[in-house]
Design a protein that fits this description.
Elements: E1 4-10, H1 16-30, E2 33-38, H2 43-49, H3 55-64, E3 66-69, H4 83-90, E4 95-101, E5 114-120, E6 124-134, E7 137-143, H5 146-162, E8 167-172, H6 180-192, E9 199-204, H7 205-214, E10 221-224, H8 226-239, E11 249-251, E12 256-258, H9 277-290, H10 293-309, H11 323-334
Parallel strand pairs: 1-2, 1-3, 3-12, 5-10, 8-9, 8-10
Antiparallel strand pairs: 4-5, 4-11, 6-7, 11-12
Helix pairs in contact: 1-9, 1-11, 5-6, 7-8, 9-10, 10-11
The structure holds nicotinamide-adenine-dinucleotide (NAD).
Length: 335
């Protein structure tokens, strides 16, 4: 008996509506029955409710527990704080999960990459505690706690076991930030002792960047704080074809919001040039989370077929297909 789901949909800003709507069509074609409840965040929230992160939108995610979300534009060096950070903290979605791997037909710097970045999502410099001490001097405070570091380490090791992965690499800068990154590392070490079957290693973040560029195949699960995770996941995306092809998820005890790694790319909004692949793969993660592994695998296979055939490659992958044309071809291969 097929299940019926009601989930929350945030189409987002910039290229968000194009990639999210294309993804919704792909999911519908897979046969999974989802009723979407629309929620708005950001500038659209101001227009409708007078606030950036409307309580109605938070309630919609809380009610349905799972959401698919497009990217939201955050002003640079001025204006309101990141709504993504606010959303992740409000719903205590502490684990940001970003799998990075090769796909057939996607031009990439490296082959045989298959790693997953586990990024702590609620603290670090993203606590957003900044102030001016005196004119010309500002302070930005990095918060690291034992509770948050331990639970993200546990999440990483549990994922390694679940996905039959072999190694967890904790990435840090504890040679300089001895207290904060030192505490993070101490928690990772302690948790690692409970997972004897998983190899554990530690690597300083600058070396990790070089190792990722030179030899990414050595990595399996990468575990890190918020800022390093943000930066290294874009770096890792660049190894396998760019940010248009990497999915992501924010997972907490009670709620999960699935969103691609990429941003709203405002310059491309409405032009039909955004690659919907990252968002489609994000929905694959969401379907697995919902307990729909068959539909997830069918979508992934249809995507791979489309990429392998190469007739409808998106523009960032060297082709000419628009967002819609690529999604339509995935749907055709799904059927
Ligand atoms: P971006 O990801 O929007 O764009 C960077 C580059 O990546 C683009 O120039 C483009 O070449 C490429 N790109 C991104 N998405 C693509 C796609 N679907 N297909 C093909 N190529 C793609 O990052 P940015 O320019 O640093 O940020 C723009 C805005 O997005 C900012 O306001 C930022 O705060 C926001 N942002 C939001 C999220 C989120 O909501 N989760 C994440 C990252 C950035």
């Amino acid at each position: 008996m097929p299940k019926n789901y009601t989930l929350t949909l945030v189409i987002g800003d910039g290229i968000g509506p194009e990639v999210v709507n294309a993804t919704v069509e792909v999911i519908a074609a897979s046969g999974v029955n989802i009723q979407w409840e629309h929620a708005i965040i950001g500038q659209q929230g101001i227009h409708r409710y007078g606030v950036l992160l409307p309580i109605e939108s938070l309630d919609a995610i809380k009610r349905n527990k799972v959401a698919l979300k497009g990217p939201i534009t955050t002003p640079i060096a001025e204006g309101f704080p990141s709504l993504n950070v606010a959303l992740r903290k409000s719903l205590d979605m502490y684990a940001n999960v970003r799998p990075v791997k090769n796909f057939p037909g996607v031009p990439s710097l490296h082959k045989n990459v298959n790693l997953v970045i586990i990024r702590e999502n609620t603290e670090d410099l993203y606590a957003g505690i900044e102030h001016e001490v005196v004119p010309g001097v500002v302070e930005s405070i990095k918060i690291i706690t034992r509770v948050a570091s331990t639970r993200i380490a546990e999440y990483a090791f549990e994922l390694a076991v679940r996905e039959n992965r072999k190694k967890v690499s904790a990435i840090h800068k504890a040679n300089i930030m001895k207290l904060s990154d030192g505490l993070f590392l101490d928690c990772c070490r302690n948790v690692s002792k409970n997972y004897k079957s998983i190899q554990y290693e530690e690597m300083i973040v600058d070396n990790a960047c070089m190792q990722l560029v030179m030899n990414p195949q050595q990595f399996d699960v990468l575990l890190m704080e918020n800022l390093y995770g943000d930066i290294l996941s874009d770096l890792a995306a660049g190894l396998v074809g760019g940010i248009g092809v990497v999915p992501g998820a924010n997972i907490g005890k009670d709620y999960a919001v699935f969103e691609p790694v990429h941003g709203s790319w405002p310059q491309a909004a409405g032009k039909g040039i955004a690659n919907p692949m990252a968002c489609i793969l994000t929905s694959v993660m969401m379907l697995r989370h919902l307990g729909e592994p068959e539909a997830a695998t069918r979508i992934e296979t249809a995507l791979e077929t489309t990429l392998r055939e190469g007739k409808f490659s998106p523009q960032d992958l060297g082709g000419k297909a628009t967002t819609q044309e690529f999604a339509k071809e995935v749907i055709k291969n799904l059927r």
